Amino acid sequence: MKKPAAPRPERLAAGLIESIDFHGLAALRLRVPSGASAVVSAFGAQVLSWTTADGRERLFLSERAVFDGSAPIRGGVPVCFPQFAGLGPLPKHGFARTRTWSESGRSTGKDYAMVSFALEDDAATRRLWPHAFRAEITVNLENNRLDVELGVDNTGDAPLAFTAALHSYLRVTEVEDSYLEGLYGHEYRDAARGDRIVKDTGTRLGFEGETDRVYHGVRRPLLVNAGNLSLGLDQEGFPDVVVWNPWVERCAALADMAPSGWRHLLCVEAAAVRVPVTLAAGEGWSGRQSLVPV
Ligand SMILES: O=P(O)(O)OC[C@H]1O[C@@H](O)[C@H](O)[C@@H](O)[C@@H]1O
């Protein structure tokens, strides 16, 4: 018997933004005429899904991710701000990923849909980090790319310094069959091996164990070679690139990861880590990561 045809998604004439509930969280779904879509939650201003025009999900989101606000969401593009990892006195990766941000703008056009979320200091952030600031995440979905930008303004009257990252969890079919190109000749701090500084001499980086590296001063675009989930990555403003995969044992210790979850992710993060960003009173900074299917 002939199978009934799957319903065809309606073809959009222009970008569209809809409010949705995503695992109980308030979120926006962005859609563009190519068929690509993305989901961004107000919690963490976090991209939680990006499906390209070919129907493939490109971001890893853990099947055990917690969506009740009690913990950061494991997957998508968490925003690490104003502290990367444990490089300071704040909670790991800062507080931005566990705060609810406010929508600060949206627009659509023939071939894009864009939303922004803002986070400003309040009594709770000042208790942790005594600075006046305004951070903004802008997510721009186009037919064939996704751009995520973090902007930070020092709204106080004293200088401030921060480290930050867009902690993108890229979905791969099998991390052991994936590799990353573009880091040749760069120095990195190997956080999985006692923070030693190493110079990368391989033309491509493969994955055979726990990987936790901060590459310094990366100026070239990168290529994640992962079969039909391959992506080109580019960044501006962020000088560093973090490459992370927890592998078997560390993954098993993470309550919000399935035991085999590590196989299906590769974090390639646009980051400002080695040298903190310093802003004088009234000064601003921005950094962007762009993901393009290849
Ligand atoms: O489990 P978390 O807090 O989300 O952090 C995940 C990882 O994030 C990476 O960016 C860090 O380099 C790792 O050291 C860290 O373990």
Major beta sheet, strand line-up:
6-7-8-9-21-18-17-12-15
Beta content comes to over 45%
On the 0 to 100 scale, the average pLDDT is 97
Care to count the β-strands? 21
Question: What separation lies between the terminal Cα atoms?
Answer: 37 Å
Please report the first level of CATH classification, the CATH class.
Mainly Beta
Query: What is the helix tally?
Result: 2
Instruction: Indicate the low-confidence ranges by residue numbers.
Output: none
Helicity level, as a percent range? under 10%
CATH architecture: Distorted Sandwich
Mind telling me the C-alpha Rg? 19 Å
Overall form: globular
What's the structural blueprint in terms of helices and strands?
Layout: E1 16-22, E2 25-31, E3 37-41, E4 46-51, E5 79-80, E6 102-109, E7 112-120, H1 123-128, E8 133-142, E9 145-154, E10 160-166, E11 169-171, E12 179-181, E13 187-190, E14 196-199, E15 204-206, E16 211-215, E17 222-225, E18 231-236, E19 240-245, H2 247-252, E20 265-279, E21 284-293
Antiparallel strand pairs: 1-2, 2-3, 3-4, 5-10, 6-7, 7-8, 8-9, 9-21, 10-20, 11-20, 12-15, 12-17, 13-14, 13-16, 16-19, 17-18, 18-21, 19-20
Could you explain the architecture of this structure?
The chain is mainly β. The chain has a single domain (16-293), classed as Beta-galactosidase, Chain A, domain 5 (Distorted Sandwich), CATH 2.70.98.10. The chain has 2 helices and 21 strands. The chain has helices at 123-128, 247-252, and strands at 16-22, 25-31, 37-41, 46-51, 79-80, 102-109, 112-120, 133-142, 145-154, 160-166, 169-171, 179-181, 187-190, 196-199, 204-206, 211-215, 222-225, 231-236, 240-245, 265-279, 284-293. Strands 6-7-8-9-21-18-17-12-15 form a 9-stranded antiparallel sheet, with no helix packed on it. Strands 5, 10, 11, 13, 14, 16, 19 and 20 form an 8-stranded antiparallel sheet that branches. A 4-stranded antiparallel sheet has the order 1-2-3-4, with no helix packed on it. A hairpin with a 5-residue loop joins strand 17 and strand 18 (231-236). The longest helix is centred in the middle third of the chain and has 6 residues, at 123-128. The model has no long low-confidence stretch (mean pLDDT 97). It binds 6-O-phosphono-beta-D-glucopyranose.
